[in-house]
Amino acid sequence: MNKAPVKIECLKGAEEICGFVKEDPQKINCLVRDEGLPAWKRNSAGPWRALNVDLFNWMLHQRNKYLKDTPKYLVNT
């Protein structure tokens, strides 16, 4: 079963955010712009920020988007 993190935390910076989702921090701009990574900057400046629960849901969406022959129990997660 896919369970979201119990504790909601705000991750700060490309390294921490991309470490959570196992992506290259150098590509965070493309991930946000092209893949819908749920991260933001305050007033378009400063470090990237993201909530762990939003990142968890994004990873589930990415898995379902790219996984061929997704098992039925994963389709509605």
Could you characterize what this model shows?
The protein has one domain. A hairpin with a 2-residue loop joins strand 2 and strand 3. Helices cover 45% and strands 17% of the residues. It is globular. By secondary structure, the protein is α+β, with helices and mostly antiparallel strands. It contains four helices and three strands. Strands 1-3-2 form a three-stranded antiparallel beta sheet.
Low-pLDDT segments: none
Order of helices and strands: EHHEEHH
Major sheet strand order = 1-3-2
Quaternary organisation of the protein chains: single chain
**Total domain units:** 1
Taken from the alpha-carbon principal axes, the silhouette is globular
Q: Whole-number radius of gyration?
A: 13 Å
The major β-sheet equals:
3 strands, antiparallel
The rounded distance between the terminal residues' Cα atoms is 9 Å
How many helix segments?
4
Structural class: alpha+beta
Give a count of the beta strands, DSSP E runs of length 2 or more: 3
Estimate the helix proportion, in percent: 40-55%
- Strand coverage percent: 15-25%
What value does the average pLDDT take? 89
